[in-house]
From TrEMBL:
PROSITE patterns given in the database record: CYTOCHROME_P450
Keyword vocabulary terms for this entry: Heme, Iron, Metal-binding, Monooxygenase, Oxidoreductase
Cofactor: heme
Protein's recorded name: Cytochrome P450 3A43-like isoform X1
Similarity field: Belongs to the cytochrome P450 family.
Pfam families, alphabetized: p450
Organism: Biomphalaria pfeifferi (Bloodfluke planorb)
Binding site for heme: C461
Length: 745
């Protein structure tokens, strides 16, 4: 891989402008007729590039060519060509498309890896890659947790201020991603979530707004690329007169770098530290490259070196990349959830099963179980390949791709919107939001480059792991607490605009309704210990908030009491529920076979705590885990009775006592924990927390029971069950049947 000079259009600068603008014609590649001065640039004045690419594909086919000034651009949605260019022939296509007023990628001091090419790119990426390793990203989980908790506070406050609980998600997610990247990258606690007028936030917005405009200087740069030095000097001069957001941010980053260098005794575990540790002794990139060229293997010694200016420009790169892309993806994702309530519901069920609401802190490994969440994220990125603007390569050496002779200097742009909507890869309904496209058997059948939202090959996005971790954590936490619906302000289909990325033009306005928390409604703090007594109190309070028809029968007030008649009425009340709930005894001899009323001892039957625990489970199951699911059986173990309490129950959903459709639920009142240390260590103290609240304990067992299963268990094994539930919910089947059974309707 060599560093070539800045190619000025295909065939180098020796060919005349006229000749260069005939290249596609000579190659037999179709495309729009170019203008001698502008090429086809004027066509982008009204229609953004990604839309124009789609239009032209309809007209000229999968692969066609057009001109930006004199520079030929080959646009393709052919996955085999993309694989050749991005992956297999990387050595011939290691450079990005150059923008007319950007830095010189080979000579300038302040070049970051996004624009660098050849050896320089390899050296820079070599320094940065370890900072994005799985091990390093895992360590960022606590910081992400904290930032997302701030987000939840702000969402709650914002939603409460408006009558329809409307939240503009793009803005709020941008503030989140800015705070997160600042903390993970440089260790700055900025908190723009709490302060919408934060100066760094405003300047980041300024940079993004600048990319949406196409100033005259850019146009000149495109028209006469060989005068690059003139344009860049003019650009810098003009922007120094008028405060330019990118320069302002660069200066802040420079200050941060200097400060971090002074605080040498604070060795932090962030991206900036990784770069500071790799700092080269001289500030000159020429010195660095000269030193590198002295040794036979230039990568070996200097692979981990960067100049000061390179560190500063990387800090700015990560700030902007981290701020813009992930927030836009989140906004698209929640938009799609609001349009596809069945996806939202299924996703929430998966999240609640693995990460119940009681857990404030999400751990890295928990996320691996969220298969459906992966599919939802991937499907969002399929429908919205927002960074398709940058998935282009410049040919650095004449070469052959397929049956085309590609000359040096030609740009090859991946037409990602067409690839991602091509029915040959995605079936007949590519417009639909269908996460199940990403089930393993479907993925296996698909070409590797049919999905490239993060680009492809060695220069694919460096921040993938970080972006995916953040996306998964945000969706998990937010969806546990809020239901999303389209608001009056939402425009469907979403109008999009193009800047550095493709983003919602008017933001994403959704109605975010906080999901009722059983515990908060009962006035209980998270993490409080639920013994029989507070549990009974809680149930008493909880019942007030449940409508009679929701629950299916009259609920008697529950209290902790020694009064025998009270106990009897409670038990009776439980048994009344047999039409919908079958409670089975799980003894050694007769596992899952006998009914509660036949098997329980009278002592057990009348035990207040037992009754309240069962009732509690019903309520909780209905309230949190089992929204939309029908609880049909509860098993518990009579063998290990201590204090007449339960230690484990299996709850079958949808009347199928089948291990694949079984979720375990356990409640562990304080006394029981004392008796059963293994439970304490396995389920409760596993997270190093205090005994979690009942809602959490309830759901802990779900985690335990899901763990040993196949990774994609939820999606593949229970798909039919969930679909049936959807149908039942839609037709109100459950309550109809309930009323019939009870003779009331
Ligand atoms: C959902 C979020 C993101 C998307 C969709 C995305 C997408 C992309 C795409 C399409 C490219 C160009 C790849 C190519 O040309 O093949 C890219 C490059 C890059 N991205 Fe991301 N990105 C995301 C998040 C991030 C984050 C969070 C960071 C860092 C904090 C980051 C850092 C970078 C860097 C450094 C490059 C340049 C890599 C190189 O040239 O070697 N990205 N990204």
């Amino acid at each position: 891989m060599e560093t070539a000079c800045r190619p000025n259009g295909a065939g180098g600068s020796k060919k005349s402008r006229k000749d260069r603008m005939r290249i596609f014609q000579k190659m037999g590649i179709p495309g729009p007729e170019p203008n001698f001065l502008f090429g086809n640039l004027l066509e982008f004045q009204k229609v953004p590039l990604y839309k124009k690419h789609q239009e032209w594909k309809q007209k000229y086919g999968t692969t066609y060519g057009y001109y930006e000034g004199p520079t030929p651009v080959l646009v393709t949605s052919d996955v085999n060509i993309l694989e050749e260019v991005f992956v297999k022939q990387f050595n011939n296509f290691h450079a990005r498309k150059l923008w007319p007023v950007q830095v010189d990628p080979d000579k300038d001091e302040d070049v970051h890896m996004f624009f660098a090419r050849g050896r320089r790119w390899k050296r820079l990426r070599g320094v940065v890659n370890p900072a994005f390793s799985a091990a390093k990203i895992r360590k960022m989980t606590p910081t992400l947790n904290e930032c997302i908790n701030h987000l939840l506070d702000v969402m709650r406050d914002t939603a409460n201020k408006t009558s329809h609980k409307t939240v503009e998600l793009l803005d709020i997610f941008r503030r989140l991603t800015l705070d997160t990247i600042l903390r993970c990258e440089v260790g700055i606690d900025q908190n723009s979530l709490k302060n919408p007028d934060d100066p760094i936030l405003n300047h980041c917005k300024g940079v993004i707004n600048d990319t949406v405009k196409t100033p005259w200087l850019y146009l000149l740069g495109f028209l006469f690329p060989s005068l690059h030095c003139v344009w860049i000097t003019l650009y810098k001069f003009l922007h120094n007169i008028k405060c330019n957001s990118a320069f302002w941010l660069e200066d802040r980053m420079r200050e941060v770098v200097s400060m971090r260098r002074i605080l040498t005794n604070e060795h932090r575990n962030d991206l900036m530290q990784q770069m500071l540790d790799a700092q080269f002794t001289s500030d000159s990139v020429q010195d660095l490259e000269k030193e590198a060229s002295k040794i036979s293997n230039p990568y070996k010694k200097f692979l981990k070196s960067m100049t000061n200016e390179e560190i500063v420009s990387h800090a700015l790169l990560f700030l902007l990349a981290g701020y813009e892309t992930t927030s836009t993806t989140l906004a698209y994702l929640f938009f799609e959830l609001s349009q596809n309530p069945h996806v939202q519901q299924r996703l929430r069920l998966e999240i609640m099963a693995v990460l119940p609401r009681g857990y404030h802190t999400i751990e890295y490994d928990d996320l691996k179980q969220l298969t459906y969440l992966d599919y939802v994220i991937w499907e969002t990125l399929r429908k919205y390949p927002l960074a398709s603007t940058v998935t282009a390569r410049q040919c650095m050496r004449d070469c052959t791709v397929g049956n085309m002779q590609i000359p040096m200097g030609m740009l090859v742009h991946a037409n990602l919107w067409d690839v991602h909507y091509d029915p040959t890869h995605w079936g007949e309904d590519p417009q639909a939001f269908n996460p199940l496209r990403f089930m393993p058997e479907q993925r296996r059948k698909r070409h590797a480059t049919a999905w490239m939202p993060f680009g492809g090959g060695p220069r694919a996005c460096a921040g993938i792991r970080f972006a995916l971790l953040q996306l998964k954590m945000v969706v998990s936490k937010v969806l546990r607490d809020f239901d999303f619906y389209p608001s009056d302000k939402l425009i469907v289909p979403l109008p999009l605009k193009q800047g550095a990325t493709i983003l919602p033009a008017e933001g994403v306005h959704l109605s975010a309704r906080r999901r009722g928390s059983a515990l908060s409604e009962a006035g209980l703090r998270r993490g409080s210990v639920m013994t029989g007594i507070p549990l009974a109190d809680w149930i008493g309070m909880r019942r007030k908030s449940l409508r009679e028809e929701d629950f299916g029968c009259e609920i008697s007030p529950l209290e902790h009491s020694d009064n025998n008649s009270r106990k009897a009425s409670l038990t009776e009340n439980l048994l009344k529920r047999n039409d919908t709930v079958t409670i089975r005894c799980n003894s050694k001899e007769n596992r899952r076979n006998s009914l509660l009323e036949n098997q329980l001892t009278s002592e057990a039957k009348s035990h207040m705590r037992r009754a309240s625990v069962i009732k509690g489970i019903e309520l909780l199951t209905k309230d949190s885990v089992g929204r939309g699911l029908k609880l049909t059986a509860i098993n518990f173990d009579t063998k290990n009775y201590k204090h007449n309490l339960f230690n484990l129950r299996d709850v079958y959903f949808n009347g199928q006592p089948d291990i694949d459709n079984t979720m375990g639920i356990s409640t562990m009142p304080e006394e029981l924990l004392g008796e059963m240390p293994h439970l304490k260590s396995k389920s409760v103290l596993r997270r190093g927390s205090a005994v979690p609240d009942l809602e959490s304990v309830n759901e802990i067992e779900l985690i335990e029971s899901f763990k040993p299963r196949e990774k994609s268990f939820i999606l593949e094994n229970t798909m039919d069950v969930f679909d049936e539930i959807d149908v039942m919910k839609k037709s109100n089947y459950t309550s109809e049947r309930l009323h019939k059974r009870r003779g009331s309707g």
